[in-house]
Amino acid sequence: MVNLHCHTFFSFNAYGHSPISLAWLARRRGFKAIGIVDFDVLDAVDEFLDACELIEVRGSAGIETRVYIPEFGTREINSPGEPGIAYHMGVGFASSQVPQSAAPILAKMRMNAAQRNREIVKRVNAYLDPVTIDYARDVLPLTPSGNATERHILSAFMTAVQKSAPDPVKFWAEKLEIAPKQIAQTIGDAPKFQNMIRLKLIKRGGVGYMQPGPESFPAVDQVNRFVADCGALPCLAWLDGTSPGEQNVGELADLLVSKGVAALNIIPDRNWNIADPEMRQLKVQKLYQVVRLANELSLPVNVGTEMNTFGQKMIDYFDAPELVPVRETFLDGAHFIYGHTLLQRALGLGYQSRWAQSHLASRRERVDFYTKVGYRIQPGRVSVDRIKHLDPAITPIDLLEKCGA
């Protein structure tokens, strides 16, 4: 069992998990590997990887943001209703600290997210008046480092209505244009009710929604440079293969690989755990198609459940019949990302290093090597200390011989 895509409370975790809490969850439940991903920040990386090292858990860390891909400017990709805009990732970060060349990009990502949030609050305040919130006073205290998300904004509005509206059911029924009976039946279930409010107020078509354009998010090239400068791996984020952009996944993948992408992220549950049998069959076939493509292009696959929406699973179970054919690829991907993270963190010999490019010329060679590292070298301080004492000029074969269990 692995989960390489868990948001922490530094962006939003539906179960309230901190970085250390996620590491302990993996240790307690016997996960083979666990990885974190947060929106627009790397605040959790050091805490999480230190914890994983201490309690001997395979760990990896990443970042998620949105980018503009000009070559797909007229096609939806993985952000519904937003042509040219894509959720995009970097995985395999070794530290929360970034080099000087990357710092301005990371700071701008955080600043842009805050500006979008303030505009959302302004729009929703106008609609929900007389119940309003203050971003600094009511939203930011819900986060450990000031990196708020839509979920924090919704929580603040829910609290404000509960405190200020004489009849919260009547208030929400009028503002959401939903029957009071339905509101009354749902308002006691905070996760379900938050999702209801989110659809009406913030998602596409809602009063707080802002249609993004080419200037709304950084270009994918810029984010890829930031990720690579940090020694991490730019990562294509896959939705489900049904959008116009993802229907041309070969073209999309070739383009992004040419721009530096080195991995692929999949949220398996949304690709098979579907009630409608025809839709499930379609999306499962799309899943197999993109996994085959990833293997052909030597793109390791990062998988997980997100945990940033109420109701999402703690872990994917790869013994589901639909996932059995891709289980080995998923497990290999988890070990690859851990193997890269381990060597980058201990000695600066990760996938993007000059050492790797010198000794392992092709993507396939590098993927195979770091996957072996992930399987053979056990997590924990003993392994890290052993690697730190190696000669940085060591060959990949000698490294595996000296450190592999």
Walk me through the topology.
Blueprint: E1 2-6, H1 19-29, E2 33-39, H2 45-55, E3 59-68, E4 85-91, H3 103-128, H4 135-139, H5 150-164, H6 168-176, H7 180-186, H8 190-201, H9 220-229, E5 233-237, H10 244-247, H11 249-258, E6 263-266, H12 269-272, H13 277-296, E7 301-303, H14 327-347, H15 354-359, H16 363-376, H17 381-388, H18 396-403
Helix pairs in contact: 1-2, 6-7, 14-16, 14-17
Shape: globular
Integer count of domains: 2
How many E strands? 7
What structural category characterises the helix and strand content? alpha/beta
Fourth-tier CATH superfamily name of the largest domain:
Metal-dependent hydrolases
Order of helices and strands: EHEHEEHHHHHHHEHHEHHEHHHHH
Pick out the low-confidence regions.
none
Numbering strands along the chain, what is their spatial order in the largest sheet?
Answer: 1-2-3-4-5-6-7
Biggest beta-sheet profile:
7 strands, mixed
Q: What's the alpha carbon Rg, rounded to whole Å?
A: 22 Å
Highest-level CATH class of the largest domain: Alpha Beta
- By DSSP (H or I, 4+ residues per run), the number of helices equals 18
- Looking at the structure, the CATH topology of the largest domain is TIM Barrel
The termini sit apart by: 21 Å
Level-2 CATH architecture of the largest domain: Alpha-Beta Barrel
Mean pLDDT: 94
What helical percentage do the residues reach?
A: 40-55%
* Binned strand content: 5-15%
